[in-house]
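Quick one: structure tokens for this chain, please?
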Amino acid sequence: MTQPVPRQTRRRYRQRTPLMLLAALALLAGLWAGLLRLGWQLPPLSLRLPAQHGPLMVSGFLGTLISLERAVALSQNQNGRRLYYLSPLLAGLGAVTLFLTLPTAVPRGLSTLGALGLTLIFVIIYRLQSTIDHAVMGIGALLWLVGNGLWLAGWPVFQVVPWWAGFLVLTIAGERLELTRVLMLKQKTRTIFLSVVAVFLTGLLVSLFAFDAGLRLVGLALIALGAWLLRYDIARRTIRQKGLTRFIAACLLPGYIWLIVGGAIWLLVGGQYVAGPLYDAMLHTIFLGFVFSMIFGHAPVIVPAVLGVQVPYSPLFYVHLVLLHLSLILRVAGDLLLEMPVRRWGGLLNEVAVLLFLLVTAVTIRYGKKK
């Protein structure tokens, strides 16, 4: 029988709900902006919206979500301190103000402060538990801060995007490294991981003054990192299990393949294109194929921790997962073959997969409450 949740705990869960709603708003707005950028004839809602697809998805949705998850973990460790929730709040407000006719420095400044908050959270986490995985995730937060700082300073988004990608890639890689502790990896294996991270960071720094060369170096690191994760992640073992454990592994392993594919495109294309089909393939192999695979897999674990509601496993989870990957194959094929209708339909189905993920998650939460 389920134990009743204490009133104070329920209140804490309710207080986090507005922050999750800010992240959800940023996601929905980002998806709408994505359809506009793909060429679908839809109401723009805001004149600024089409150009804000990337900032909404990275800083608005993912930045708010990751900051909230880390704020929850640290707050629970330190007697419920609310100060840590400033980071997701600022990131979420940065997304909302993108819709308003305010100076661009306002949303960019808020997002930068949100990134600063997450970086400081990881400083505290590292001081509490000084591990390599926490250091890697902290560096990821720092990359978000640098990227947002460049954005605030007026750098074009295409030069900021690699830093945003670094934020997400290193955050996820650090989390997966943390879970490999049970495998007792050899020191040599961990050294390879850190060497790949070093190459990745070097590529980002090089991109500041030699954009093409820097992106190719980043691409090489993405290939190596994807291969490392594919070889050493515990998902190689858990894929043989059942239920939610197997589903999570089924999300992770294709995500690593997309990371390798994306890295190959970055390596081959470099900075030659900052818009258009090849650029679309460069970004969405990473942000959709890799990052959203991780989101699909980790949502049944993160949502209960943040909101205190259970997300019971359902075989229906595989529907949006398979749709995401098949539609992304379609989209990338359209990009590489310069078939715009194929690309456009692939992009639309990408978004259907994300919306289906939200719907199935909501339904399973509702079902879990009734049990």
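The two ends are 11 Å apart (CA to CA).
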